[in-house]
């Protein structure tokens, strides 16, 4: 009888410990979410991690052009231990918040083997990341280039009209990182072209870019 009581007590204590552990683990995982989001926002990779569909929805919901002001958007390109040539085809452009714009980057693989890279965007000032909405971008997916391949990659974006008025200059910078072990991956094309019949407003080309 005593053994049965002791065994029941042991089982209750074990169940209690398991329940406490489960609650602690759940709370820890829940707290990691805002912490992770803050890191993404601070490092400027928030837009890269946000699903493409969500960005498009945000942009379409803010299509009213604020012609009362212009923002100078500058473009930068960097490589991290990657044997590519990577550059924007235009260094800057004046845009109105709410205006759909398309610019292009050029990339070339200088190796004699396929190489896969991933572009990560960053923004200056960092607050601009919240208002820089991309509908099309090569950073949405990994890019695999064949030996000697040259590729023109478009970026279609719109600045949210809610961008603070004190922000008059934004720098969009991309850094390409090589993905180790992916050099023999199946070659993928660039970002999908917009299908005919799309209702999205036609993006402005880089007229007036410097």
UniProtKB/TrEMBL annotation:
Gene3D superfamilies, per the entry: Ctag/Cox11
The cross-references to SUPFAM superfamilies, in alphabetical order and at most eight, read: Ctag/Cox11
**InterPro entries linked:** CtaG/Cox11_dom_sf, Cyt_c_oxidase_assmbl_CtaG
- Molecular function GO terms recorded: copper ion binding
Q: Which Pfam families match?
A: CtaG_Cox11 (PF04442)
Q: What is the topology of this protein in the membrane according to its UniProt annotation?
A: Single-pass type II membrane protein
Q: Which domain of life is it from?
A: Bacteria
Residue ranges spanning the membrane: these are 14-36
Segments carrying the region annotation (Disordered) are: 188-210
Localization annotation: Cell inner membrane
**Which key words are in the record?**
Copper, Membrane, Signal-anchor, Transmembrane, Transmembrane helix
Q: Which GO terms describe its cellular component?
A: plasma membrane
Q: Which residues form a coiled coil?
A: none
> What does the similarity note say?
Belongs to the COX11/CtaG family.
Q: What does this protein do?
A: Exerts its effect at some terminal stage of cytochrome c oxidase synthesis, probably by being involved in the insertion of the copper B into subunit I.
The name this protein carries in UniProt is Cytochrome c oxidase assembly protein CtaG
Q: What organism is the protein native to? A: Thauera terpenica 58Eu
